Amino acid sequence: MKISLHNQVAVVTGASSGIGSGIAKSIASAGATVIVNHSSERSVDEAKAVLKEITDAGGNGITYQCDVSKEDQVMKMFQDVVSQFGTVDILINNAGVQKDAKFTEMTIDQWNTVIGINLTGQFLCAREAIKEFLRRGIDPSRSVACGKIIHISSVHEIIPWAGHANYASSKGAIKMLMQTLAQEYGADKIRVNSICPGAIQTPINKDAWSTPEALNSLLNLIPYNRIGQPEDIGNLAAFLASDLADYITGASIFVDGGMTTFESFSTGG
Ligand code: BGC
């Protein structure tokens, strides 16, 4: 049994660092041509470094700058990718940010930025991807499915998170977006799923692992007793995007070392 994404084109949003870069590398190594999306001029060098790792390993792709919270930019990204590569087969809706604040001190800007990127960005990219999937139709030389969308959610689609109301709200909403799309487009053979990462060692949660004390307290939340790595997510993304996962749609799959078993109950309750 071998995961193959050969002959397929994948857009990975927020792929210049963190979980997105891990996913981009994993799906490229499974054979997909990868669009390494990054949000701004500031992240162009990082995106190019990710692409270089992909091409050095024998894979294919391009970098593409686009702020996923902006409708015109997302529409242009999909148009450009389709004109360069013919179509899009896989969307990994990964781009996401945290703007943490105590709820009573949370600014409208912190709220709008997180909802704009984490939720509206996933809506816009999914809409453009599904339009392209339906235009192309099923092509058995690529995949038995018409298209695949993987939303990168979080354990915080089910675990409430004090001090992060904007982020937790965006992830809770992604669950309903994902399931609704899976229901609405199942008959068209479009598969839609979410990966819900726990604590993965990336820049977004650096404060939680960069000192021994912080890491120790983080590990108290993780039964499997290690922090996750981007390839833990990348491995599942490659599988879920492949035809091996053809009967999986509408699912939230947790990759969290057991965080959602509520470790603190191992000694209490
Ligand atoms: C957040 C991280 C956090 C993890 C577990 C993720 O969705 O982005 O900052 O460490 O959830 O709480």
What report would you give on this structure?
With 269 residues, the chain is α/β, with parallel strands linked by helices. Helix content is 41%, strand content 14%. It is built from 7 helices and 7 strands. The chain has helices spanning 18-29, 44-56, 71-85, 108-136, 165-185, 212-219, 230-241, and strands spanning 9-12, 33-38, 60-65, 90-93, 147-152, 190-197, 252-255. α1 (18-29) links the parallel β1 and β2 (33-38). α1 (18-29) packs across α7 (230-241), α3 (71-85) packs parallel to α4 and α4 packs parallel to α5 (165-185). It starts with 8 loop residues before the first strand and ends in a 14-residue tail after the last strand. The mean pLDDT is 98. The structure holds beta-D-glucopyranose. Beta-D-glucopyranose binds next to loops.
List keywords for this structure.
binds beta-D-glucopyranose, alpha/beta, 269 residues, Rossmann fold, seven-stranded parallel β-sheet, single chain
Topology record:
Layout: E1 9-12, H1 18-29, E2 33-38, H2 44-56, E3 60-65, H3 71-85, E4 90-93, H4 108-136, E5 147-152, H5 165-185, E6 190-197, H6 212-219, H7 230-241, E7 252-255
The protein binds beta-D-glucopyranose.
Beta-D-glucopyranose binds next to loops.
